[in-house]
Amino acid sequence: PEDLWNNTIVDMKGSHYRLQSTVLNKLKEKFNFNGIPSYIFINKKGEVAHTQIGFGGTESIVGKLNELLAE
C-alpha cells in the first residue's frame, strides 16, 4: 500500500523509488532476487558482483562498496 510506503520512508535518508509491480517483477527476474529491500552491487565491469537481501546495516553496505571500488 502506497500510504504505508510513504509513511515508512519519511525518516529514511537517501533516495527511494516505488516501482510498479510489472517493473519490479522484471527486475526480480533479471537480478534473481525476491526480497525487499534488496541490494545489487554492480562492479566496474558492469557485472553483478554481490547481492544482499535485507538491510544488513550501513557498515555492511559501505564495506562492500569500498571493497568493490578497490578492485
Helix content: 40-55%
Strand tally: 2
Strand order of the largest sheet: 1-2
**How confident is the prediction overall: mean pLDDT?**
89
**Beta fraction of the residues?**
15-25%
Poorly predicted ranges = none
Structural category: alpha+beta
Number of helices: 3
Distance from first to last alpha carbon:
40 Å
Compute the gyration radius: what is it? 14 Å
Please state the overall shape, judged from the principal axes of the Cα atoms: globular
Largest sheet: 2 strands, antiparallel
- N-to-C series of helices and strands: HHEEH
Could you describe the 3D structure shown?
This protein has three helices and two strands, in the order H-H-E-E-H. With 71 residues, the chain is an alpha+beta fold. A two-stranded antiparallel ribbon has the order 1-2. A hairpin with a 5-residue loop joins strand 1 and strand 2. It starts with a helix and ends with a helix.
